[in-house]
Every structure is written in structure tokens, then in C-alpha cells.
Write a structure and sequence with these properties.
homodimer; Pnp Oxidase, Chain A; 195 residues; flavoprotein (chains A, B); two-stranded antiparallel sheet; mainly beta
């Protein structure tokens, strides 16, 4: 299946808004001929402009190896429509299965497409994409599995985020927030408050 | 007004679940006779057990001064019922107003109560509370405004989180996720997927 992936650029000073509400993300990585994707509930913005992010990448993962070797990763904001795939790619190792192929027959494959600034794959079925370069901080990486990155390009599906704002069109699958044990929350009602 | 705050302890290895879905938090701090509270959208779990957290605390805030001086902070998960106060305490400095008093007459005061392991205040109207001790990492603090902490005690309102799981009772105000400009998402529908 080939999916048409609709995306528009997000201006970098607004890129933090793609993560500000705390969605679970997919981390894309590549080095040489190898590429991978894993789920991460532990990520957050770290700065506005230039935009920076922080993400925890366990030392035992293939993603860790590829991110350390390449100095790049993508953060992808999955839609509820691929919650099952999000859980799946967070539950197996890229050392054991190619998460982009359908060899398992279980239908948990995800689509990859190319970014513009990094070689790490961006993931289809997502609402937003951040292309990131690692800000090397070996002490954080070694001691806390904590990676910092600068966002060098950002994209969003205009049905979910446009003109710098989340604006979910009716019927558009929302972002998700992982809890534990296969349990998620969907991103809920938007509301505005004034002080 | 004195509020009865219902809370039960959360076992430490489950404390990450209070933040795993990416809610906006309130950061409580105290040093000497001074105390403060501010909002922070940029926090995340950093480890399971012992539980650790990461949070961004801007260098220009009173919170920063108090956290650096005391080596402690609380993370508090506000309910939608206090979204207005959450925005308010994130919009003014504790150097200008006492956010725990009602001198402004604007009704944006928050209630504070005592934790068990730290002197930083816990905040009323929240769903969960994490008492944290700073893990000193001066380079992260100075360069990225990034603070790491170990969670030394955790609590939750059993109407929202009990037995290690978020279980919002009907009618209970949910956690919130800040976007920008006074706009939030409420934590939405819970769902489970299986791989």
C-alpha cells in the first residue's frame, strides 16, 4: 500500500507546539543501510528558538545505536489510527524484526518516508514530524539515556495542525498519550482560558 | 476557603504514570520563608525506579532561584477545574505577587499544603503530586534550564488515580495539556490496544 502523505512545513519557532501537549511520539533513526522506529512516551520541548527537544532513548535499543552513530533522529506524532502500530513498534526490537516490512503478517508495519534535512525516516500515519540533530551531551546520554536535539525542520498534516495551531478537522484522528500496558488517552477537548 | 484535599500515596515504581501521558504540571518551590508556584508544560519522566523526572525551569523565574537554593521541587498535576489558575501562575512572577494569597482580588490564588519529604508546597486542586529532590547537574541547569529530580514521594487523588492506574470517576475534572496562548487540551478518552 502506498499512502499519500499530506504535510506542510511548520515554521521553526512554532515547532515546540507539536510536542507541547505531551503526546507520545515515534522515534525514527537510520545509519548506513539500517533504519528503525520505536515509541517514546518520554519526550518534551526544551527550547523555543532555535527549537530543541529532549527524549529518553534506552541504551538497549537499536534506535540508541543508530542515533548515536548518525547524530540524527526524527520525532513523529502518531494519530490514534496507528495506536496499535505505535504500541507494536514500542514492544519489539528492530534487531529482531524490520518494523517497516510486513514479514510478520501481523499488520503492524509502519510506512516510512524521507525528510529533507536528516536521513532518519519520517513515519506515515502521523500528524506531525520533527527532524532533529543530536546535541551531543555524552554525560546525559550515558547516565540518564537522555538525548537532546535541535529541530532543523518540522512538518504537520494540515488536517490536524495549520497556521501554527492544532486545529483537528472533524473526523481527523487525534494524537495520543501513552500510560502503560497498552493503555492510552486520546488528546481530548480543546479549550481556552483567560486570566 | 479551606479545601479538604483527598490523597493517597502512590508506590514509587508507579509514580512515572502520573506524568507519562504528558500533562502540564505546576512546579512548587520554597526556600527559607519564600515559596512559589509556576506552570510548566515541559516536564517528563526520566526513569522508572527509582523514579526520576526532568523539567525545564527558566533562569529568570523565582522558582528557579528557590529550586536552586533548596534542591527541591514539587510537580503537581492540575485538574481542568484549575486551568485558569494554572495559566495565571504561569503568567506572573512570584517576585511580583504572592500566588498563594488573594491580594489581587482576581481569584487566581492557589492553595498550598505540606508534603512529607520536602518543604516545597504541594498545590490544592491537583490530581497528583510528586515530591522531588534535585539531582544536581549544573551543566544542564546552566545551559538548558533543564532540571533532573528524583521522586521521593508521590500522591494522587483516588477519584482520578488509584491502584496504579488513572481511573477518572464520572464527573471528576481531568488533567490538562497546555498548547500556547491560553489554549489547552483536556485529557481525552482512555482506550486500550493490543498488539
Amino acid at each position: 500500500m502506498t499512502e499519500i502523505i499530506e504535510r506542510l512545513p511548520v515554521e521553526l519557532p512554532k515547532a515546540y507546539r507539536l510536542l507541547n501537549h505531551g503526546p507520545t511520539v515515534l522515534v525514527g533513526s537510520a545509519h548506513g543501510e539500517r533504519r528503525n522506529v520505536m515509541a517514546a512516551a518520554w519526550s518534551m520541548p526544551l527550547d523555543f528558538s532555535p527549537p530543541k527537544v529532549a527524549v529518553v532513548i534506552d541504551r538497549n535499543t537499536l534506535t540508541r545505536e543508530l542515533v548515536e552513530a548518525s547524530g540524527e533522529f526524527s520525532l513523529n506524532v502518531p494519530a490514534r489510527a496507528i495506536a496499535r502500530e505505535t504500541l507494536a513498534v514500542g514492544s519489539v526490537s528492530g534487531r529482531d524484526v524490520d518494523k517497516f516490512s510486513d514479514e510478520s503478517g501481523e499488520g503492524n508495519r509502519v510506512e516510512a518516508f524521507d525528510g529533507t534535512h536528516i536521513r532518519a525516516p519520517l513515519i506515515g500515519g502521523c500528524l506531525a514530524w520533527l527532524e532533529c540533530r543530536v546535541i551531543p551531551e555524552p554525560h546525559n546520554q550515558d547516565r540518564y539515556d537522555l538525548f537532546l536535539g535541535e529541530v532543523v525542520a518540522a512538518w504537520a498534516d494540515p488536517r490536524a495542525f495549520r497556521d501554527g495551531h492544532w486545529q483537528f478537522a472533524p473526523g481527523v484522528s487525534r494524537s495520543i498519550h501513552y500510560i502503560a500496558g497498552g493503555n492510552f488517552f486520546e488528546t481530548g477537548e480543546a479549550f481556552e482560558v483567560k486570566t
